[in-house]
Write a structure and sequence with these properties.
single chain, rod-shaped, mainly alpha
């Protein structure tokens, strides 16, 4: 029987096993490194999504605030417009009232003058 230590295939088998173990260890290290890189990328991706969500929420809040300001401005302008309209209508109403009063006063004056003229005419007729 020959000794196993003298067989060159035994040494080739050991070398192949060592090479296979080395390749397996290298693959595990690479896989572990790739896995840690993937976890890091996922964390960065999640962080970026969180930042984008926050920016989106901030932008929406700014838009909401701006819309509320615009709505308040519109309401204020509408109220001012209503006040101005009421002032104008009040002025027109006052003018109409004044014109009616003026018409009555003028009519009364004219009627008095006509009455005076009529009495003068009657006095002139009587004096003849």
């Amino acid at each position: 029987m020959t000794s196993i230590w003298l067989n060159p295939f035994f040494y080739l088998f050991i070398a192949a096993l060592l090479l296979l173990a080395g390749c397996g260890y290298y693959c595990l290290v690479k896989l572990s490194k790739k896995s840690s890189e993937m976890k890091l990328l996922q964390q960065q991706y999640a962080a970026r999504i969180d930042v984008l969500r926050k920016e989106h929420a901030d932008t929406m809040e700014k838009l909401r605030t701006e819309m509320l300001k615009r709505e308040e401005d519109r309401s204020r302008q509408w109220m001012e417009s209503e006040r101005e309209t009421l002032r104008v209508l009040n002025g027109v109403s006052s003018l109409l009232d004044l014109s009616k009063k003026m018409g009555r006063v003028d009519s009364d004056k004219i009627m008095k003058k006509l009455g005076e003229i009529q009495t003068k005419i009657e006095n002139l007729k009587d004096s003849k």
